[in-house]
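Forum: Protein Structure Q&A
Topic: Joint prediction for protein chains with partners

I've read a bunch of threads here and the consensus seems to be that you should model interacting components together rather than docking separate models afterwards. I'd like to see that in practice. Below is the full input, 671 residues plus whatever partners are listed. Could one of the regulars post the assembled result?
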Amino acid sequence: MVFSSLNFLFLFLPLVMLLQWAAPEPLKNPLLLAASLFFYAWGEPVYIVLMLISVAYNYLAGRQIGGRRDPHRRRAALIGALAVNLGMLGFFKYYGFLVDTLNGLFGLHLANHALPLPIGISFYTFQALSYVIDVYRGKAKPQASLVSFAVYITMFPQLVAGPIVKYTDIERQLTDRRTSLAQCGVGLERVVLGLAKKVLLANNLGMLYDAVCAAGARSVLTAWLGATAYTLQIYFDFSGYSDMAIGMGRMLGFSFDENFDHPYLARSVTEFWRRWHISLSSWFRDYVYIPLGGNRVRPARHILNLLVVWMLTGLWHGASWNFVLWGLYYGALLVLEKYVTGALLKRLPGWAGRACTLILVAVGWVIFSNTDFHAMRAYLGTLFGVGSAGFADGAFLYYLRNNLLLLAASVACCGPVLRTWQLRLAGRRPAVALCLCAALLLACTAYLVHGSYNPFLYFRF
Amino acid sequence: MNGQTKLHGRGPATGNPRGASRTPTGRSSSAPGPRSAARSARRDGIWQWLRVADHRYAAGKWALIAALAVYCWLMLGANSAKDVPFSKVEAAMAVVPGLEELERLDEDDLWQRFGVTAEGVEDWMLYGSGDIMNVSELWIARTEDADALDRLEAAAQGRVDAQLEVFRSYGVGQKELLEGAVIEQCGSFLFYGVSEYAEQWEAAFLSCVR
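Posted by a regular:
Agreed with the consensus. Here's the joint model:
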């Protein structure tokens, strides 16, 4: 089941919210757990066993780590938990990738029995890891209730595509949360905005990008138009999903941290990654970068730390070498900013910094979107005039003319202006804001009825 | 010590009309045999061991790891296919019912119907009908490239969706067949079948590759 489906929006979600509101306090978590398991099983019934094993194992691991006093035994339990979680993730997500790489490098003929990727495994495994590590560090108490812990891991708003919620952020909310009609309204408004980003903007931008990719010879401007379309598509797709997850969490009484902060307004790549997929970058910072020493080490070691973290970040996104390259690309850019270009960037005017960052980010997305290296190389070449069909062509004008309104709306929605205006309107004229929200929902529903299956891009992670 | 055994609160054996008091198993209450004593000691030991919370957590974790291993083994078995020559698959499919009404198609037809080429595909076979009202098709492809396999599967699904769109308003029979389409990845194979015999085709294919 995807968030942007009619079944979810008009059957599952209202029913779950109604049950949550009507249920007495002791039944809220069991009902939410049952709904989340149903949600997951709808799309992937066979992989629900895997998720339940993960929940049970991490629950026991947390109790064991929290109950032990001897530091060596606590560490042994933590290492065991890390091994099982990472082993599970590695087997289901990276086994085929590893076998193909070994076959390619050493000419072996190992059998590749790779399994389909269980939806959400990267997200719920990272959440489980954050729990056991925080229990080990003493930042969180082990959760006594298996049901509450299972709700933390399997909660449907953020189960399949994040944000990655740290246990310490919602520890108290698992057993003590309040919701009100006003909160529900705010949450619902956020859900509608997220849905609009996905259905009205991201899906249409995706069609533009597909059209540009399907074209044989591309001019430089057409290639940049395609890259821009993908840059906008992935932002609205992913941030739209996050908005829906945060909105639904609010309706259920949970308060999730923001996952995006207008990333395309960043004036440097460093700032970009403080604004994009915040939950992931902070997870890697807290559980990989800082334990490796962070930036409190010699420069050579700091550079290595950055490259390792970014290689892992790329690998997290997918079992393919283009994702590793994408991660290393950003690692290299961050090293450059830290040690070479940082001072220069500070002297640049804001618009210049933003423009440079956007160009670098768009190039990064081209690497991200092409698992085939030949296609990636060809596209990157076209961006800079290598192998292109001239600087501009009729196709560019055609795509631009037909998508001008879409592109203009998308660019406007990248900044805070529209959202600020909408919030002010909600404060001053709530009835008008409500009508606007209803109109958005109606437009999205019309698109969904007309369209077909349209999963979120980040589902594949 | 005094040769008598007090069990379940019973008094000494003297005065018991049955003679010597008996254990619940019916044995005489002389000293227990060495094997049963050892078994009993082990059972008590395990329960004693499990009384400690940490040990219970450890036992639970190991049980879950075992369950995970079994689950992975089952999943691998369900998804795998033997490394059989493609000619064997073709021979197995040649005798299935319904295929005699279809003709073997070429790469142009593959492109026209599915929007993919045979590039990157090691072996493939495609059967279809020249009659546009006949939606029956059989397509089996084999590639070691997992991404290519996903693309082929997506192309097969796209074909079904496109055909459903074509026959939406007037082709009741065709719609029924398309809704019963079988699209499946099995190891390095993709199987796609639309026909009243689709399930039999699938069974023949699976019996050949599993």
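The CA atoms of residues 205 and 233 of chain A lie 5 Å apart.
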